[in-house]
Design a protein that fits this description.
Shape of chain A: globular
Order of helices and strands of chain B: EHHHEHEEEHHEEEEEEEEEEEEEEEEHHH
Largest sheet of chain A: 10 strands, mixed
Number of helices of chain A: 12
Number of domains of chain B: 2
Shape of chain B: globular
Strand order of the largest sheet of chain A: 4-3-7-9-12-14-17-20-22-24
Number of strands of chain A: 24
Distance between the termini of chain A: 10 Å
Structural class of chain A: alpha/beta
Number of domains of chain A: 1
Largest interface: A-B, 37 and 35 residues
Helix content of chain B: 10-25%
Strand content of chain B: 35-45%
Number of strands of chain B: 21
Oligomer: heterodimer
Number of helices of chain B: 9
Radius of gyration of chain A: 22 Å
């Protein structure tokens, strides 16, 4: 099919529109990783002694660990000494007191990215915390949130102003010993968001963080901590972009969610880091640890749309510790060009009557390699645990790959676990059917892919769903199965 | 005279090897190479992804006594008459602790050119074929087998010929001491358009933590059709380690059925190489475990050519503190377009303490394929029981009926009629008498 070959070429060469660089003076640390760097970061952020201690412990542990090789991805070893662990836009004087004082160039950047930082935020009804390289540059709607008792601020600020909360929860869900990149993150994390929802509160608006890597040779290591007290509810969104550069940049984040009794956290991600070019040059290495813990009757729902990054290595997980708790994972992962994704989830059933749902949709095009890797674990005491997993893969073109690696472990006879997976391509008959009804082949492909992903789009908050759908359409431009 | 030689394999494999040399065994280069590979790798541990859920500790911590010589104990014909499939009209090769017993074996006149014999007697003619399929595998147990195997079956069906009756390979183990080990090697070659049915039984006569390490290579020519039924029914202390390596020609049909009922620890490595178009390959298995048994099936089906179908169906019933492990990987290479691959693993847990670990995996590099897999773990479906009760069956009968359906699903895929019936009864009798069905 000659048209198919043409359109696939077109697709592979479609542009990354967030690849610009903001020319802004920034303050960066010389590349290198050692205890001095950690002390510098900690001092820069005015951190208390216990946190510095914790970072150093993590770093010492990190030094003892080895880079994991089990993911189904290939990349040259990362040289941690070539990375700068701190980069922040240079502040004038004492730094901005409010958004109005933030460097207009920065705001312009976010404007370009479509982040509603100003009044637009009010219209959109979304509170945004924007992280530029290592520093959080402004949180909107702070006062409105404060009225409801919600704390939404950069984690560095939370460390200063709510140390008791941070200290109580940080590292409890993802300890620094958890894995290689979690240890690295714990040692050098620079900023990120902190959310605290008090007891019985329903967060009055959607919270959102926007991550942007700008400076060259820097790594971004953000840390997000969300604590939902008893019977509270919060929906949190996160989005990411980075400039186009020929070298790879490392992004190793840690996200911890704590949902206490009857609380509910909904966490949505649209990840669109720069994916690199078709030869696999450049792009972000996205090595992320995300995990939440559910107490009695609590619920955590992860939704992710992963279209960016050269390499994605990410398993948002839920520990269902409390009885009757619920974990959900909805994912769309698209790999094209030379992107590689190894993503999935872990559902650890500990409490009784716990339920989990996994819906994963993988789309591979170009030379992309897409793997689903997941674990469903049912402990001895998790009576009546229930899991349903569905992992579907769609292949576009004949140079890509789609893989499924589920792990299922059950130790309780009353557990009921189902796993289903299919791999297929867009059928010629499906396209033909649409053509026959007057749809262009491209529209037909978009339509079929959107239909394929519908179950996940449904889970995204409205504004994000629209954006995600568009993102997918753009990424698929010109592709015909 | 002692029939075995005690050597500590974990610590001094070289000494064991000296023993082999002393006996002037054939195939020294293969054995030497196997030993070198084993010395380098050592036994697999649970740190190896392929052995994550199956610890070989009970096996590696024992003193090793390789059964270099046949046992002197005499086994009566009555023993043979008591084992499964013995009442069928089959040719029979009997091996005791990895050595051929000519008295118990019974070979009729097969069609012209068909060879049914033991491997050790034919080594000079088939030297280059041994290890042809298993050679590339990194599994240390194969290296161990290469170095130490004593005997096994050698079956050759020439082109356009068929086995006139099924061949029954009977492997008996007399071990009464912990740590006694038998290393067995089988080679089965079916040339183009050849046909046949092969039965394989592993039976313990003694109660001991003795081990079996069997490597089987099956090579199927274009258009050949082979059905291979394996029944592993060893004592609850035994350790059974097996690997099967198959290479199939164009349009070949291969059906392998595995019934893992016995052994303290059993592991079946199945490696299917589908490198020619039009192949149909079925791996079909049932494992039933109780007490502290562990049954592990680990398969890789490699689709390297277009228009091949592969199907894997594995059901397990687990009672007491037993464990079931399943690893299935379907690998579809870029050139294997139009692949149709299916994989299911269903597990029924009967007790509070049984564990299941299942990893059904798909690795796909071609776009025009149909691949699915599914896995379930759970108890019997209450709705199904209710449905049957609503129709007047008591709950016990309903449960039995559903369970019978669960095992029957696997058993009924056996093409050989009378063998299928016998296995059905065997499996069901076992469940009725030894498992907690209610």
């Amino acid at each position: 099919m000659s048209t198919s070959a043409d359109t696939i070429d077109e697709f592979v060469s479609s542009d990354y529109k967030y690849g610009f660089i903001t020319d802004i003076e920034s303050e960066s640390l010389e590349p290198g990783l050692n205890e001095d760097v950690i002390q510098f970061i900690s001092a820069k952020k005015d951190e208390p002694e216990w946190l510095l201690e914790w970072r150093l412990k993590a770093f010492r542990h990190f030094e003892k660990m080895e880079n994991p090789t089990w993911p189904h991805v290939k990349y040259p070893p990362v040289n941690f000494q070539e990375i700068s662990y701190y980069s922040a836009p240079k502040k004038k004087g004492d730094g901005p007191k409010s958004l109005d004082e933030v460097d207009p160039k920065l705001l312009e950047t976010y404007e370009k990215l479509g982040v509603p930082l100003h009044e637009r935020a009010r219209l959109a009804g979304v509170a945004v915390d924007a992280v530029f390289d290592s520093e959080s540059i402004g949180t909107t709607f702070k006062e409105d949130l404060a009225k409801a008792g919600v704390i939404f601020c950069p984690i560095s600020e939370a460390v200063r102003e709510h140390p008791e909360l941070v200290r109580k929860y940080i590292g409890t869900v993802v300890p620094y010993t958890d894995n290689y990149y979690a240890a690295l993150n714990s040692a050098v994390f620079s900023d990120g968001s902190f959310v605290y929802i008090p007891k019985g509160t329903r967060c009055p608006m959607e919270l959102s963080t926007y991550f942007r890597i700008n400076a060259a040779n820097t790594g971004q290591f953000e840390r997000t901590l969300i604590v939902a007290e008893e019977s509270s509810h919060v929906s949190y969104l996160e989005g990411c972009t980075a400039p186009m550069r020929d070298e790879n940049q490392l992004h190793a984040a840690v996200v911890e969610l704590v949902a206490l009794d009857n609380a509910e956290i909904k966490y949505s991600t649209v990840q669109n880091w720069y994916p690199g070019d078709e030869e696999g040059r450049g792009g972000i290495y996205n090595f992320v640890t995300k995990r939440g813990i559910c107490k009695t009757n609590a619920k955590i729902s992860w939704t992710q749309v992963e279209t960016g990054s050269a390499i994605t290595w990410k398993y948002p997980s839920v520990i269902l510790q409390g009885n009757n708790s619920i974990g959900e994972f909805y994912s769309i992962a698209l790999t094209n060009k030379a992107q590689q994704a190894d993503t999935g989830t872990k559902m650890v059933h500990i409490g009784k009557n716990t339920r989990s749902t996994i819906i994963s949709k993988g789309i591979s095009a170009g030379k992309g390699q897409n793997s689903y890797r997941g674990l469903v674990q049912v402990g001895k005491k998790a009576s009546n645990a229930r899991n349903f997993s569905q992992c579907d893969s769609l292949l576009i073109g004949n140079k890509c790959g789609a893989h499924t690696f589920p792990y299922i472990e059950a130790k309780n006879p009353t557990a009921s676990i189902e796993h289903e997976a299919t791999t297929s391509k867009i059928g010629e008959d499906q396209i033909f059917y649409c053509n026959q009804r007057g749809l262009e082949t491209q529209d037909a492909v978009n339509m079929i892919v959107n239909g394929f992903c519908k179950e996940v789009f449904r889970e995204l908050p409205m504004e994000f769903a629209v954006e995600a759908q568009k993102l997918l359409d753009v990424s698929l431009e010109g592709s015909v199965g | 005279m002692s029939s075995t030689t005690v050597i500590n394999l974990a610590e001094e494999p070289a000494n064991a090897f000296a023993e082999i040399k002393r006996r002037g065994t054939a195939l020294l280069p293969l054995r030497q190479d196997g030993l070198a590979r084993f010395q380098e790798s050592g036994f697999p541990t649970t740190n190896d992804e392929d052995w994550r859920f199956t610890s070989l500790k009970p096996f590696t911590e024992m003193p090793f006594e390789t059964m270099f010589e046949p046992t002197i104990q005499t086994i009566g014909q009555s023993v043979i008459n008591g084992i499964a499939f013995s009442q069928h009209d089959t040719d029979r090769l009997v091996f005791v602790d990895g050595h051929l017993s000519s008295e118990l074996s019974q070979i009729s006149n097969q069609s012209e050119g068909v060879i049914v014999s033991n491997l050790a007697s034919a080594l000079t003619t088939i030297e280059d074929k041994i290890g042809a399929l298993s050679g590339k595998d990194q599994n240390p147990l194969i290296a161990l087998n290469d170095a130490f195997f004593t005997d096994g079956a050698w079956i050759h069906i020439p082109a356009n010929q068929a086995l006139s009756k099924p061949v029954h390979l009977v492997f008996l183990y007399t071990a009464i001491k912990d740590g006694q080990a038998s290393h067995i090697r089988n080679l089965i070659i079916a040339e183009a358009n050849a046909k046949g049915t092969i039965l394989e039984s592993h039976i313990s006569l003694g109660q001991a933590a003795a081990s079996t390490n069997v490597v089987t290579e099956t090579q199927l020519g274009d258009g050949s059709n082979l059905e291979h039924i394996k029944l592993q029914d060893q004592s609850s202390l035994a350790i059974h380690l097996a690997s099967l390596h198959s290479k199939l020609g164009s349009d070949a049909r291969y059906a392998f059925h595995s019934f893992a009922l016995g052994a303290q620890l059993s592991r079946n490595n199945l490696r299917m190489d589908l490198a020619k178009p039009g192949i149909e390959c079925m791996l079909n298995g049932l494992y039933m475990t109780r007490g502290r048994q562990l049954a592990d099936h680990h398969m890789i089906v490699n689709h390297a050519a277009p228009y091949c179908n592969s199907h894997e169906y594995f059901n397990g019933i687990l009672d007491d503190q037993s464990r079931g492990v399943f690893h299935g990987r379907i690998l579809v290479e870029p050139e294997a377009q139009k692949t149709d691959a299916k994989q299911t693993n269903k597990n029924l847990i009967l007790s509070d303490e049984a564990t299941v670990n299942t990893k059904p995996q798909l690795e796909i590099y071609a776009d025009d394929v149909k691949c699915t897999h599914g896995a379930t773990i759970g108890e019997l479906d209450n709705d199904a029981i209710f449905y049957l009760r609503a129709r007047g069956l008591d709950s016990q009968t309903a449960r039995r009926m559903l369970m019978h359906g669960f095992t029957g699903e696997i058993v009924e895929r056996i093409q050989h009629n009378t063998i299928r019936d016998e296995l059905n009864e065997l499996v069901w009798g076992r469940l009725e008498n030894e498992y907690h069905l209610n």
